[in-house]
Design brief:
Layout lengths: L5 H11 L1 E5 L18 E6 L14 E5 L7 E3 L16 H4 L16 E9 H5 L10 E2 L1 H11 L8 E5 L11 H5 L7 E2 L1 H9 L4 E4 L17 H10 L2 E4 L4 H5 L4 E6 L9 E3 L3 E5 L1
Parallel strand pairs: 5-7, 6-8, 7-9, 9-10
Antiparallel strand pairs: 1-13, 2-3, 4-10, 4-12, 5-11, 11-13
Helix pairs in contact: 6-7
């Protein structure tokens, strides 16, 4: 297995061994999520023993219900409008007639195999455990992380912003991660513009809303979503597991993600991967 072609190099890298970091959260009943979306539910409509074949074989199967913006997920450009318009300038209400967004739905997001960069903001700020509740991550913070890590952002990259808030995902009290009362750290409007100015293809974070949520404000105002999804055409990935990457000091990697091709949907559950050499 070899050759100097791109395919040959990829196959050689895989054969020599890679380490895969799973950046997706397990989908479980009762997990923290935005209150704006239908909750995840999983059941077994058929259990082993409900039907047994003549040879003794039996099968179980599942049914799930969930919003497309629950758990680790990606936002399509159809997800957010501003002043009644979507990214392509189309009328948002008209575009969604019939219950499908044919032009900007999640089925239009191509699978991603791209350079990924983790910007570890708490490490850059000297607060490695995490940012304070409601802290707004600024362009200066993003630049400080780039400088500290030596990982400049290039056009087409996927940029993952660690706030440290992900440590609360499995805390047992889902309200802590949701942070309605405390606020949640995240990228603000200026930080979103900074990411777009550098040509990011997608931006992700370890929170349910990507951006800064002030104490008690919930999802009342989401300027980073407006900048990225409506004005600049940058996908958003939310509820990511970034702690293992940060703990291992992995700031640059091959990023792999493929949404479910749900025709006309505004988002999709995903299981992103960060791939590095073994």
């Amino acid at each position: 297995m070899g050759g100097t072609s791109t395919t040959g190099l990829l196959l050689r890298a895989v054969s020599e061994g890679v380490r895969i970091y799973d950046l997706g959260r397990p989908l479980t009943i009762g997990m923290p999520q935005s209150p704006n979306h239908p909750a995840f539910w999983h059941a077994l409509p058929r259990r082993h023993g409900d039907m047994v074949r003549a040879d003794g074989g039996s099968a179980a199967n599942d049914i799930i219900t969930m919003g497309t913006h629950v758990g680790t997920h990606i936002d399509a450009f159809a997800h957010v409008s501003h002043d009644g318009r979507l990214l392509d300038g189309s009328d948002a209400a008209e575009a969604g007639r019939g219950g499908r967004f044919a032009e900007l739905g999640v089925h239009t997001i191509a699978p991603m195999v791209r350079r990924g960069v983790l910007l570890d903001i708490p490490a850059a700020l000297g607060t490695p455990v995490g940012c304070e509740p409601g802290y707004e991550i600024t362009p200066a913070d993003l630049e400080a992380a780039v400088e500290r890590q030596g990982t400049p952002i290039g056009a087409g990259d996927v940029v993952l912003v660690r706030s440290g808030w992900g440590r609360f995902f499995g805390s047992g009290d889902r309200s802590v991660y949701i942070g309605n009362d405390s606020g949640v750290p995240g990228v603000g409007e200026a930080g979103a513009a900074w990411l777009a100015d550098r040509g990011a293809h997608a931006a992700g974070a370890d929170t349910i809303a990507f951006e800064c949520l002030k104490p008690g404000s919930g999802h009342s105002v989401l300027p980073a979503h407006r900048v990225l999804l409506v004005e600049r055409g940058v996908y958003i990935i939310e509820t990511m597991a970034l702690e293992e990457l940060a703990a291992d000091g992995v700031h640059e990697f091959a990023f792999v993600l493929s949404p479910l091709p749900i025709f006309g949907a505004t988002g999709s559950p995903v299981r992103p991967l960060a791939v590095v050499g073994a």
